[in-house]
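Sequence only, no structure available. Ideas?
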Amino acid sequence: MVKGIHFVNLKDAGDPAENARLYEQEGADELAFLDITATVEGRKTTLNLVQKVIQAVTFPLTVGGGISSLDDMENLLAAGAAKVSINTAAVRRPALVKEAAEKFGSARVVLAIDARRNPGLPSGYELVTHGGRTPTGQDAVAWAAQCRDLGPGSFCLPAWTPTAPRKALTWN
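Reply:
I predicted one. Tokens follow.
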């Protein structure tokens, strides 16, 4: 488990399973386990670590990082993840979101949207991939609107969401 700011200066923050237990004791009722370096490092999320966290808690676990196919999702869901979260793979191939929602059900598919400030875009935020390292040139809010009809059951939004203009985060 690591702690960083804007996906950089990552520091070891302890054992993920132990921390998950502490979050549960503090009242957490769901947890997102996001391996933000998996895609950059060209690997999958560490399945045995995911299983260790799942066994440590009683609440649902959403897992993301290094997921690039339906097979990856199926493996994580079979291991006990309640949901899978995708970002980079969805940007590369948006149809993957729809395929996953159709195969596993929308409720099990989370579309992660990582963004950084970019005043040159209509919403002021640019979609980024690869654990926040790669800019796409796409407006993050426009991307969310584009993806809503692909069927994700939920979105995992970055910390900027509460301060973004409300109208930019809604659609008709």
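The chain has one domain: 2-169.
Hope that gets you unstuck.
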